[in-house]
Write a structure and sequence with these properties.
The structure is a single chain. The chain has 251 residues and is mostly beta strands. It has a domain at 126-242: Immunoglobulin-like (Sandwich), CATH 2.60.40. It is built from 1 helix and 12 strands. It has one helix at 2-19; strands at residues 35-41, 44-51, 117-123, 130-133, 144-148, 154-160, 163-176, 182-185, 198-199, 205-221, 224-227, 232-242. β6 (154-160) and β7 form a beta hairpin.
Length: 251
């Protein structure tokens, strides 16, 4: 009776245990899919790739057992006629040279292991200076056009550990005109008459111009776009001398 109850409990508990969660799956270790990361460091763009860092296990080769021949014993051995041996003349014995047997080549299966790939690329970004117009002694109360010759965007495509990565960056600008006036914009400016960055000085003097250029952007891999961590900032300087126009009396 106890054996019957134990069997019934086992049969009832088996489907319940099969429904319980097994446990969390381990994180991917970049063996099959590549791990890509793009970030900034020391004013540079760093692109890192990692793939195949865990070697595959060698397959085990198991030999199949060879079946032994089976002999069938006769039921009535006395009824089987025995053949009579006829004497055969002995042939003359000839001696042949001994030939050493050549060993047969053993087949070893090729085992392909995953190769650990690590690559790191460094990309330098373009730098630009400050230009303004008019260049020779601009006047007070006359707008001065400023601009930076930095490109409006930086796009590159790189291949790391066999994977294609697209990087796109755009600059931002913070102008300091030396008289306590600041301007933050994404426009690089331009010369007269289409330039959008212009400033007018009310007093003559020598003004230090400071321009901080910062890069921000994103990178794309396998259709997924991510922001680039960190920013790259460069600072350039220039000096503008503003004068007063001489006055003339016309009769």
């Amino acid at each position: 009776m106890r054996k019957l109850l134990i069997c019934l409990l086992v049969t009832l508990l088996l489907p319940i245990t099969s429904l319980l969660p097994v446990g969390p799956a381990s994180a991917a270790d970049c063996v099959e899919a590549a791990c890509i990361d793009v970030y900034t460091q020391d004013g540079q763009i760093i692109i890192e790739g990692k793939k195949g860092d865990a070697p595959k296990a060698k397959p085990r080769i198991t030999k199949r057992p060879t079946p032994k021949p089976t002999t069938v014993k006769p039921i009535f051995p006395e009824l089987i006629p025995r053949p009579t041996a006829t004497p055969t003349p002995k042939p003359k014995r000839t001696y042949k040279p001994r030939i050493k047997p050549t060993p047969k080549p053993t087949f070893k299966p090729k085992v392909t292991e995953s190769v650990s790939l690590n690559d790191r690329l460094i990309k330098l970004l373009p730098t630009g200076g400050i230009a303004y117009q008019p260049e020779a002694e601009p006047l007070v109360n006359v707008p001065i056009y400023f601009w930076s010759d930095l490109p409006t965007q930086f796009a590159t495509r790189v291949k790391v550990v066999g994977e294609v990565v697209d990087v796109l960056l755009r600059p931002g600008f913070v102008w300091s005109f030396g008289d306590g006036t600041f301007l933050s914009t994404t426009d690089a400016g331009g010369p007269y008459p289409n330039g959008k960055i212009k400033h007018t000085y009310k007093n003559p003097g020598i003004y230090p111009i400071t321009l901080v250029q910062s890069w921000n952007g994103h990178w794309t891999h396998n259709g997924t776009t991510r922001a680039i961590t960190g920013t790259i900032k460069t600072t350039v300087f220039a000096v503008v001398t503003v004068v007063i126009a001489p006055t003339r009396f016309v009769f």
